[in-house]
Amino acid sequence: MAESYASAVIPAPVDRVWQWFGDFAGLAEWHPAVTALELEGGSPTEVGVVRRLWLGDGARVRERLTAFDSVGRSYCYEMLEGPFQVRSYRAIVRLAPVTATGATFAEWSARYDTEAEQEAELDRIFVTEVFAPGLAGLARFYTDE
C-alpha cells in the first residue's frame, strides 16, 4: 500500500482554520485545482455524503466522507471515481494547534493501492498537485489578512 503526505503551518488559530478546512463541501473555495464542487445530497458533516469535484484540467472526482470528528478537527474520505490509477484510496485531513505560536498545523495524507511502478509518480502528484497546493491555498486566506 502506498502513502502520500503533506503538512503545513497556517498562520491562524485552529478554530478559524477548521471553519474552512472542516467543510467537506467547501474545497472549491480554497483549493486552486478545484473549480467547482457539488454534494450529492446530505450535509457536509454527514458520514456517507458524496462530493463531486471538477478540476481545472477538466477531470472529475467523486469522494465519500467516511468519518467526521469536529472535536478532533479531522475527517476521512475515500475516492470513488477519479483520473488516478488507484484502488482503495483513503485520505485523512487533520488540524492541530501550534500552542507556542497560536498557528495551526495541518496534515493531509492518503493511503492507496496501485501498481508498484506507479507509486512514485502518484505520490508526486498527490503531494505536489493536490495536498500541498490545497494547504497553500488555505493558508492564503490568513496571510492576506
UniProtKB/TrEMBL annotation:
Stored SUPFAM superfamilies: Bet v1-like
CDD domains given in the database record: PYR_PYL_RCAR_like
InterPro entries for this protein: Polyketide_cyclase/dehydratase, START-like_dom_sf
Pfam families assigned: Polyketide_cyc2 (PF10604)
Alphabetized Gene3D superfamilies for the sequence: 3.30.530.20
Record-given protein name: Polyketide cyclase / dehydrase and lipid transport
